[in-house]
């Protein structure tokens, strides 16, 4: 049996970042907010401590899925649309190749 390396299609850090329900909830909140929000706004809408929200946002940022900008004393996070589109497009292409009987994973 051949081993498939999905990290060739999408970095493992992205899979790890998206494997946490709180991070998915934060992404959904950012989407509802038009793609960006500050930490305080996100924390107010969550049922967890601000330090937990900040930690999850940092993980999404490290995975390249969010951009962060300092505005005075606040940190604003925004969705990195290009990263999402690129990474998910690569993954979809790999699945399409497999479906069509072609070799997988770059």
Key structural traits:
106 residues, alpha+beta, Arc Repressor Mutant, subunit A, three-stranded antiparallel β-sheet, 5 helices, transcription regulation
What is the makeup of the main sheet? 3 strands, antiparallel
Q: In CATH, what is the class?
A: Mainly Alpha
CATH fold name:
Arc Repressor Mutant, subunit A
Strand order of the largest sheet: 1-3-2
Number of helices: 5
**Uncertain residue ranges:** none
Structure class: alpha+beta
Helix content: 40-55%
Total E-strand runs: 3
Into how many domains do the coordinates divide?
Answer: 1
CATH architecture grouping = Orthogonal Bundle
Beta percentage is 5-15%
The chain-level mean pLDDT equals 88
What would you say this structure looks like, in words?
- With 106 residues, this protein is an alpha+beta fold.
- It contains five helices and three strands.
- 55% of the residues lie in helices and 14% in strands.
- It has a three-stranded antiparallel beta sheet with strand order 1-3-2.
- The longest helix has 19 residues, at 81-99.
- It starts with 11 loop residues before the first helix and ends in a 7-residue tail after the last helix.
Topology:
Layout: H1 12-18, H2 21-32, E1 36-38, H3 39-45, H4 50-62, E2 66-71, E3 74-79, H5 81-99
Antiparallel strand pairs: 1-3, 2-3
Helix pairs in contact: 1-4, 3-4
GO molecular function: DNA binding; DNA-binding transcription factor activity
Keywords: DNA-binding, Transcription, Transcription regulation
Organism: Lujinxingia vulgaris
